[in-house]
Amino acid sequence: MAENFKLWGRQFFWRATVTSGAAGGRDDRQAAPHRSISHPLQGQNTFGNKQPSNYHTILYLTTSAYLLFFLRHQSLQYLSSPLEFHLIATMSTDTTTQKWAPGAKKLDAGDIAKPFREEIRNQVAKLKQSGIESPLLVGLLANTDPAAKKYAEWTGKACVSDGIRYELRTIDDPIDVEAALCDANDDPRVHGIIVYYPIFGQVESFSGESQDDYLRDTVSYKCDVEGLCHQYRSNLYRNVRFMDREHTKKCVLPCTALSVVKILESCESCYDKSKPIGRHMEGQTVTIINRSEIVGRPLAAMLANDGAEVYSIDIDSIYLFSGGRLHKCEGETPESCVRKSSIVVTGVPTKSYRLPSNWIKPYTTVVNVASFKNVDEDEILQIEGVTYIPMVGKVTVAMLERNLMRLFYNYHHPDRQYEDRYKAAFEAQRVVPWYGNAVQIYTAFAATAILAMLVAKSK
């Protein structure tokens, strides 16, 4: 019965389409040569020799639309006509429903970034209420790399949207970047600096492994929103979290690596905040396929500092960050590392690389940091319970703004600057007592003892 009803519905629809052509005074068979000649109704005039009226045409089309709406909920296998399929497709509001494995989900980085950007807007609003101008971020762009230009564009739009001042300085000759960078470091109006790499790439430098690395270390720690200068990198690898002895100035962390941490914190079962600081990821095994100074290396250190065991994979080596120590792995392969991991982060900057999906176990969190997709998204989402984050750019920009606000409160806020000047003046005027140094105490005791012995001997 159901089969007859579906067939009758198809025939009814076809009659409507044939007569709608006839109603316009033309032969529909000539206007639609793509139709299959084997269709049972092709070549038949449903109204005999009479020309149908517009009323009949509208009636047929309306009725057939209702019938096809019913058939849409039954099955698409009976629809052989392109016109039938097109009508059903336009009626459907979700024609691309994806069938994922049970528990599999794909997270949007924009949703994760929203609360951080809202917090930044509130901080900027409070500054303006106090009569303090919002922080100024300066970007230095000296290359034609599309990814760098896009990043600069995203940064500018996000800053303007969140009330932060942003100034992009383009430099024609890369050799002039260092001078522009030093000018920005010394400019009291500038509160944050971002350099869009690569500029020189891996061109060797007399002052370091590469000229780009040298430029990263040239950025002042008071303005380094990327957290990549030597001071911040050194503190990260030594797990030093504050810039002062009083623990009032938190260190700035590399913004891309920090964005991955914040994404993992938003995922279920990755971070356990009920545990003490330094143990939030205890029991987790992580594989990071990238060891660059921008992402892979600092991210491995950050997750290891939170208690995870982290496999760091590069082209020719695998290292394990565990218990605050770095171990070179012998006998491990990228496959063996990924198979035992509950979190996998990919950051391979090449279009051709693909992580084999069969290495990933169920209920794994997979984060793609690279500008290219390092995984097959369709295959990944066929794994039970997997959580997939395809990009981190929006969270990275939010962390960049967050770092800017931290630098502003650490070094540039008027109240902080007054406090630092007062402390420096106090330290300069403070008189250190003679007994404040161990060497001085020892010298005093030794001189006293010798003098006493001489006095005793003279008697």
How would you explain this protein's 3D organization?
- By secondary structure, the protein is of the alpha/beta class.
- Helix content is 45%, strand content 11%.
- It has helices at residues 2-23, 28-31, 54-72, 82-91, 109-129, 146-162, 177-186, 211-218, 230-237, 255-266, 296-305, 334-339, 377-380, 393-412, 414-429, 438-458; strands at 105-106, 136-141, 165-170, 192-196, 285-289, 309-313, 318-322, 325-328, 343-346, 365-368, 387-389.
- The strands form 2 sheets. It has an 8-stranded mixed sheet.
- Helix 11 links the parallel strand 5 (285-289) and strand 6.
- It starts with a helix and ends with a helix.
- The model is unreliable at 1-52 and 68-97 (pLDDT under 50).
Instruction: List the total number of helices.
Output: 16
Radius of gyration: 34 Å
Largest sheet: 8 strands, mixed
Instruction: Going across the biggest sheet, name each strand in turn.
Output: 1-11-10-9-5-6-7-8
H and E order: HHHHEHEHEHEHHHEHEEEHEEHEHHH
Tell the overall outline. Answer: globular
In short:
With 459 residues, this protein is an alpha/beta fold. The protein has helices spanning 2-23, 28-31, 54-72, 82-91, 109-129, 146-162, 177-186, 211-218, 230-237, 255-266, 296-305, 334-339, 377-380, 393-412, 414-429, 438-458; strands at residues 105-106, 136-141, 165-170, 192-196, 285-289, 309-313, 318-322, 325-328, 343-346, 365-368, 387-389.
